[in-house]
Amino acid sequence: MARKVAIGIQDFGDLIRNNCFYVDKTQFIKEWWDSGDSVTLITRPRRFGKTLNMSMLEYFFSNRYEGHGEIFEGLSIWEEERFRDLQGTYPVINLSFANVKEKTYQQTKERMYQIIIELYNKNTFLLNSGLLTEQEQGYYRSIRENMPETTATMALHRMTDFLCRYFRKKVIILLDEYDTPMQEAYVHGYWDELVAFTRSMFNSTFKTNPYLERAVMTGITRVSKESVFSDLNNLKVVTTTSNEYATAFGFTQDEVFKAMDEIGMSQKEEVKKWYDGFVFGSVSDIYNPWSIINFLDTGKITTYWANTSGNSLVSKLIREGSRGIKEQFETLLQGNVIEAKLDEQIVYNQLEQSESTIWSLLIASGYLKVIEVEIAEEVYKLKLTNYEVVRMFQNMVSGWFGEKDGNYNDFVKALLLDDIDAMNEYMNRVALNIFSSFDTGKRPSGMEPERFYHGFVLGLIVDLRDKYIVTSNRESGFGRYDIMLEPLKEGNAIIIEFKVFNQRREKTLEDTLKAALSQIEEKNYAQILLSHGFELQCIKKYGFAFEGKNVLIG
Hints:
Helix content is 42%, strand content 17%. Mean pLDDT is 86; it is low at 436-448. Strand 8 (278-280) and strand 9 (283-287) form a beta hairpin. By secondary structure, the chain is of the alpha/beta class. It has four domains: 37-78 and 93-238, 3-Layer(aba) Sandwich (Rossmann fold); 251-306, no CATH class; 312-389, no CATH class; 404-553, no CATH class.
């Protein structure tokens, strides 16, 4: 009889007791314990089973679940006698920062304080144990909302001390989604304050702590050692490019197909196209577990993982990224491969200056996969992970324009109809309403002003990629054009050139437009289209002249 598929249950015990669908990942317990690592940081994309695996570790090791080994009966870990003897034998602290998503440092600190307070409230038996000195009892009671930062940063260390003395055994710490607050800190501009607080907490908890047996942290990114983990020389870092725990998070193809057989589903090729493609270490064909579980529940192939929260940082980086980032992203959206250097130690406050860090973040987040590595050059060949991810980015780009203008497709229609008046009307409305939310809207026209337009190119791709080959900044004739649309079947080809008003060379925006159109002719950008068999009269040429929020198209 097929097990029932439950969505969103992250408590391991509830999942097993209710006979819900579960892919056996208990070998992770053995692999981690046998590694002997003191503090382990494992990074995986969101919704990849990190929280469930942390719950599994708690049920296995925590003395709160002593005598509950039946939960693991029938699972692979229970086949080994030595691990049966470990079940329920350690004091365990299990914390999660997954919901710490605040807009200010003060709010973030308050949420983290609340997590610490709840931990202390859960263990109030220590106050009546006769174990704590009067001074220690005073410290215990000082754990409240208005406590000083110095008290808060030592709170986990002190709790391990208390639990270790009470149970006469060192403590295991599980910290889920450790980097969620840091991502929010970067997006909302309080990075430095949070890093200082977090560094102090982590050093006291994980480095200078004689009461710690082992610890596991999970997250999406590997935040740079210099940022948070300075002086933490006992840290084992496992990223998506590491071979350790490669099959412990996410589903293998064999696991997915067995689940589909159990439920009686046959759309294996379509499921593979949509949800396969993740690569962890040397293991490929890893499927997105959130999408698979939702598909098993509904029977519908659509976007599941891509519609969950957590895309704000990625959207910000691409939307406000350099011309190079946008051009590379266009290539990816067309299904092609890019080459890039990577730096897996994410330095959030350097994201805007480092393209390698951005690509590394996109890999860590699950949006890109490594398909080949040129070891000598340290160059990685990257591609969008699967069709679900492609659809997510298409919708994201479309949303940049649609969120403030519901008639986004009007421009595309006007372009294809050669309606210059409608193009001008639309583009000036967009510029007026949307420029301010883009990086270019905050800068003088001479400082990479084409960022907005490369964002717009991505928008064009969303609507036209099924009918046109859309390219940008490619060589043709005697130079590099800005945008070219080449129809796949029939219709006119289109060349677009952007020009920013330059007061040293031009008197009016009309002069800038003329310069853009002249450049198309002088550089012979149409040459590549002519070589593909297009007649000259079937090649439309447009100039985009702009100054601040003023746009002129001709």
